[in-house]
């Protein structure tokens, strides 16, 4: 049985997900970040209009890192269940060059980030949290939602 494991002391864990309804299709992206005590620091979900699943997952990563930085995170263990997206981050890919440069800019701002693959089953707590945010956003008709101690 796969499960979520907390990060080491002094680290935060950022679990990301992005899903379209169709590929491309109406998309959303979200991330959940927790500390080593399993406390949620924040969670977010944003609607992205018509996008591919690759774009949605990359957006979840970039936005999650940006929000982590603003919330005080410096050591981030980023987990994602999409090996294709992790491969994009580890290779020079012209299609995603601007997004990769943005990510590198964030990383250079005093962040230590480790990118890791996680099986879908281990990412289940993230799905559950993002599903709740999705439902809240549908009810409120806003574009993003935040939880935990971070506010925009």
UniProtKB/TrEMBL annotation:
One of its GO terms (molecular function) is RNA-DNA hybrid ribonuclease activity. Pfam families: RVT_3. It comes from the Eukaryota. Transmembrane segments: none annotated. InterPro entries: RNase_H-like, RNase_H-like_dom_plant, RNaseH-like_sf, RNaseH_domain, RNaseH_sf. Residues 15-125 form the RNase H type-1 domain. This is RNase H type-1 domain-containing protein. It comes from Sesamum radiatum.
């Amino acid at each position: 049985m796969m499960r979520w494991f907390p990060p080491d002391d002094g680290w935060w864990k950022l679990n990301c997900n992005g899903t379209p309804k169709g590929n491309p299709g109406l998309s959303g992206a979200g991330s959940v970040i927790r500390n080593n005590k399993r406390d949620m620091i924040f969670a977010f979900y944003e609607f992205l209009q018509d996008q591919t699943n690759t774009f949605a997952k990359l957006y979840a990563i970039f936005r999650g890192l940006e929000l982590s930085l603003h919330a005080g995170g410096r050591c981030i263990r980023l987990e994602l269940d999409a090996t294709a997206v992790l491969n994009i981050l580890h290779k020079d890919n012209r299609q995603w060059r601007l997004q990769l440069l943005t990510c590198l800019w964030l990383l250079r701002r005093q962040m230590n980030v480790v990118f890791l693959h996680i099986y879908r089953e281990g990412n289940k707590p993230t799905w559950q949290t993002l599903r709740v945010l999705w439902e809240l956003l549908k009810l409120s008709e806003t574009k993003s939602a935040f939880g935990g101690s971070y506010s925009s």
